[in-house]
What we know:
The protein is of the alpha/beta class. The protein has helices at 15-39, 56-64, 82-85, 91-94, 112-120, 125-144, 158-170, 180-186, 189-202, 217-234, 247-261; strands spanning 43-50, 72-76, 103-107, 147-155, 209-213. It is built from eleven helices and five strands, in the order H-E-H-E-H-H-E-H-H-E-H-H-H-E-H-H.
Amino acid sequence: MLESISTKAPKSVDEESTKKETAALIEKMKKLQDVLYAENKNSLLIVLQGMDASGKDSTVRHVFGDLNPMSIYVKSFKKPTIEEYSYDFLRRVHKHTPPKGMIHIFNRSHYEDVLVPEVHKTFKSDIIARRYDYINSFEAMLIDNNTHVMKFYLHMSRDEQVRRFQSRLVRPEKYWKYNPADIEESRSWDKYMAVYEKIFKKCSSKIPWTIVPADDKWYRNNIIATAVVKKLESLKMKYPKGFFDDEENRIKAKEALKDYKK
């Protein structure tokens, strides 16, 4: 399936006009974020998955970096610690899901707990099979709690991954990103692709995955910003009624301010 989906922007799409459109979408997203926070009825969980160097950090920075930090939270999931291993695999994830009014972004997620074990065969197949069921139940529970989940797979070509790895070797500001383990993991590319396709089949019935062409960052940003704005608009959110919705209260407040100035 993934082999048939392009990792690049269509040639018919203009880069400069798309960047302008994305900037306008982000401005709209900022306003919708404010209503989400004020209304306090829904929350949004954004899951970013992809191979190393696929642009998860960059997506957070360029698409969500201008949002109000008061009501957004980003969690990056690394290899589980010894303490995290002593609990069920969803515990470390569940405690970072968003309360009402908030947007939370997962840079990697609970899907790593089926992805990596499948590739490296670190758990028995029956254990991994049950994990898929647990994940579906977990996400269904989030939906029941008005947490709207969006799942994005950043679809990058293998050639583009190599190019980005190479840039980490020649640009001093990216030295810190280079990890020899990433190169080793990339040798299992075909295995990862096979498991991702399995994830898409097993965990898409309630919350579908969006496959995002990620070789061109500007196009990736536009696809994700468009989807998030569309999702937030679909919630039909409204600011809650406040003290000043009553005209009499507004008049009293104006009079009180006049007295205050004196």
